[in-house]
TrEMBL record:
This is ER membrane protein complex subunit 10. Keywords: Endoplasmic reticulum, Membrane, Signal, Transmembrane, Transmembrane helix. It holds the Pfam family ECM10. It comes from the Eukaryota. The gene is 109540764. One of its GO terms (cellular component) is EMC complex. The lineage of its organism: Eukaryota, Metazoa, Ecdysozoa, Arthropoda, Hexapoda. It comes from Dendroctonus ponderosae (Mountain pine beetle). It is found in: Endoplasmic reticulum membrane. It is a single-pass type I membrane protein. Residues 1-17 form the signal peptide.
Amino acid sequence: MLMLAGLLVCLIHPILSQSISFQSSLENDGSVLIKVQHALNGGPHPVYTERGNITVQSLRLRQAIVSQKPLSKAEQLQIQKLAESNELYKTRITVVANDGTERTFISAVKACMLAESELDDRFSVSLDYSGRVVGVTNVIASKSACEGASAPLDKLKEFTTNVYVRHTEVGAIPDTASFVQKIEREREAQEKGEVKDNRSFLAKYWMYIVPVVIVMVISSASNPEGQGGGQQ
């Protein structure tokens, strides 16, 4: 029982450590730069061009600033063509951390949904317990359903983008102390003989009875001639 209790403590300790690290990362606030590129050519070989930047000024407070330039007439026509061809609108997101390290993520949505929403989209930035960006996805904010309506060019001039920063939530920590105390009480009661075993004879000793029965069955099945000779 003591070994079991020790094992449970060892298993719970990493969870507690992650919880402490998560809290400390929130106290030691940081920022991150997210470079956004998009592909407007469609097809299996996307060509990415600059769309804008997202600066998350405070990971703890989830504050972000979006900087994007208006689309040119050619870019508007490309998005309109992507939508009419039922192609995917792809984004390549490069996350630059404070120490200069970079991570790249690829996201895609249906271009017709983007056009029908009049370029209203959002980026979801996911952080782990240490405050590191582990994922960035681009989704459509509105409930567009690609019904085939052609979006006019004057509705495709500029992106309306919102950014949502989400921290990884640490799961609930089990009440290990109470469980260990319960195990200790049961062990002490068994040592003192206070716990009575009210099980039946079969329930107590089935592990001894079953092997004997199996051996007897196998022995009877392997010696049918001996049984026949006894009957004569």
